[in-house]
Amino acid sequence: MLQPPSRLTSRLLSLTLLGLLLFTPPLLLLLDRPSSHGLSWLPAWLFLIWLGLIGLAAWILERQDAQ
Fold it and tell me: Transmembrane ranges (predicted)?
């Protein structure tokens, strides 16, 4: 008999799916256009999303230890 996934597993799976959604090519292509200064927003987007996903993963895992 299958057991339901734990809260930690479901939260980490949700975080993974969010990461996949934010790194999809159609969304990245929208941000790969030059701004008025001639620079693309793509490197900043990639770095901020990467940083946010790592921060959320750390928060989820640390919060799980406190419970």
Answer: 40-61
Encode pLDDT of 18-59 as tens digits: 999 999 999 888 888 877 787 788 888 899 999 999 999 999
Q: How far apart are CA 27 and CA 31, in angstroms?
A: 7
- Under DSSP, is residue 41 helix (H, G, I), strand (E, B) or coil? coil
The amino acid that residue 3 corresponds to is Q
Range of the domain at 50: 40-67
Copy the structure tokens of residue 67: 């419970």
Question: Total domain count for the chain?
Answer: 1
pTM: 0.79
Is residue 26 in some structural domain? no
